[in-house]
Design brief:
The structure is a homodimer.
Chain A (H helix, E strand, L loop, with lengths): L2 H23 L5 E6 L4 E9 L4 E13 L4 H4 L9 E13 L6 E12 L6 E11 L5 H15 L6 H12 L1 E2 L4 E2 L3 E8 L4 H26 L6 H20 L2 H8 L4 H4 L6 E3 L11 H9 L13
Antiparallel strand pairs in A: 1-2, 2-3, 3-4, 4-5, 5-6, 6-9, 7-8
């Protein structure tokens, strides 16, 4: 198991994604913050703010390690106790200006816990998901087509399994509402072997830009007014609610003394809450929740394009 | 134990507070929403939006009851299992426009669980706390002087105990930062007897307006610009972080199928997050965290005015 290759892949992925997003934005570049974790490791947070296309794009790389996992991590996995651990990943959230461009999130990560004389315990996790404000059938189909392509070399059932996991995970129970139109979510992946699991994580990482960029390009110059902007700002509240109430990575990070500013880079720069807001029935705003945010098989037509 | 008197007090309190805030605002009135809880009970949510003084003021009354408490409520209090319960309270959060006027929160509540042939199990809880954006010594002293006055008839140690509990409770661990300058917080109060505990809850409820209104009056016409407004919007992010990550009432409400819109009425109507923002050292913005948000005895000078 060559952990350095995982590390190198993740750092390269951060570079690739930030370069590409920067090129699309055209107006503003990413600023980098390197930071150390006092208990071991550190990271590099890259943020682009107030661009032409992106209101905020945050792409984090981190690698943390230590002699002891926090109690919260070993409570459900006692086999991890007393092991040295190393966790690394790239995590990103993109909040565009234009309400017709969806917010996107991606994450790929690797965890390993070692002990002299014993086999390492390791797994990969990650995925990506899309959160539109205004729905477009073609965007949803494209996003899921690329999601499926990322999975196809790894078996017929892979896309369906991780698509379902994504729908289940990114769900706001207090709203009875999915966060977005889904994508892929996987965790605890340690089969069939390190090489194949690593290859799958790379495939997910590599398919994020092909999934997202065409959708950004298609809508970044769409005309919009105050109505669409207000709706976007209102819907961003759901993003905050999900990340602060449910997201395991966010809560674990905050509770375990992670770097707060890097963790909360996922939160949108401007958000509105409006008591008891209901979109007008039949409007594009109502269609978001009535149609697009209903979990469905976006590729039901069966094309494998 | 006359539960209807508690109910009546709480409904009257909602009326008194909304009338007074409406009079101060002068421009906009509260809208009322009555709602039913399918499993038993209901409430009345009153919201004032886009007023002259208040950007959003939400004052909730609710009374819920049922035959069985959720598992999460009985896990730590097995003596409650199998009892009929009744819970009622008033909860409010006020978000003013002017960044020089602090946000305030107050809550008073009563819980009782009954079973034929056994003594009822009951307690009162509540408190109020203040979250300024720009600090003023006189405001902090006034707020805590009224807090102390609310407690004084009930014993010498009461203010200090509930002031400390408030400082401990309204604390963002991931920021190492208190939410505001505190006030009072109490819970599980069932001594020395029902009448006295009820009287204390009423005293807290009755002292909220005398604590808050003079501060609103003092600053509602203070001049401010984009800088102060932006700082207020940024700091409101802390309010969201606290309520969604830590606040037990919010999380219990969301998890137990409470009315989401009434629970999340506490969230500010407009919020900003800004990656790694640091106020200029020595500025009024830095003074907020460096001085005002450091827990302290605001009445140390010893006056009992």
């Amino acid at each position: 198991m060559d952990i350095e290759r995982v590390n190198q892949y993740l750092q390269d992925l951060q570079g690739t994604i930030t370069r590409e997003l920067q090129a699309i934005d055209g107006a503003v570049t990413f600023a980098s913050d390197r930071w150390d974790r006092p208990a071991g490791g550190g990271g590099c947070s890259m943020v682009l703010r107030d661009g032409a296309v992106f209101e905020q794009a945050g792409v984090n790389f981190s690698e943390v390690y230590g002699d002891n996992l926090p109690a919260s991590a070993t409570a459900h996995r006692p086999e991890l106790a007393g092991r040295q651990f190393r966790a690394m990943g790239v995590s990103l959230v993109i909040h565009p200006h234009n309400p017709y461009v969806p917010t996107s999130h991606a994450n790929v990560r690797f965890f390993v816990a070692e002990k002299a004389g014993e086999d390492p315990i390791w797994w990969f996790g990650g995925g990506f998901d899309l959160t539109p404000y205004y729905g477009f059938q073609a965007d949803c189909e494209h996003w899921h087509r690329i999601s499926r392509q990322a999975c196809e070399p790894f078996g017929e059932a892979v896309y369906g399994k991780y698509k379902q996991w994504c729908d289940d995970y990114f769900y706001l129970r207090h709203r009875n509402e999915p966060r977005g139109i889904g994508g892929l979510f996987f965790d605890d992946l340690n089969e069939p072997d390190f090489e194949q699991a690593f290859a799958f994580m790379c495939s997910v990482g590599d398919h994020y830009l092909p999934a997202y960029v065409p959708i950004v390009e298609r809508h970044k110059d769409d005309e919009y007014g105050e109505r669409e902007r207000n709706f976007q700002l209102y819907r961003r509240g759901r993003y905050v609610e999900f990340n602060l109430v449910y997201d395991r990575g966010t809560l674990f990070g905050l509770q375990s003394g992670g770097r707060t500013e890097s963790i909360l880079m996922s939160l949108p720069p401007v958000v509105h809450w409006r008591y008891n807001y209901q979109p007008e029935p039949g409007s594009a705003e109502a269609e978001l929740t009535d149609y697009y945010l209903q979990p469905r098989d976006w590729l039901a037509a069966g094309d494998h394009g």
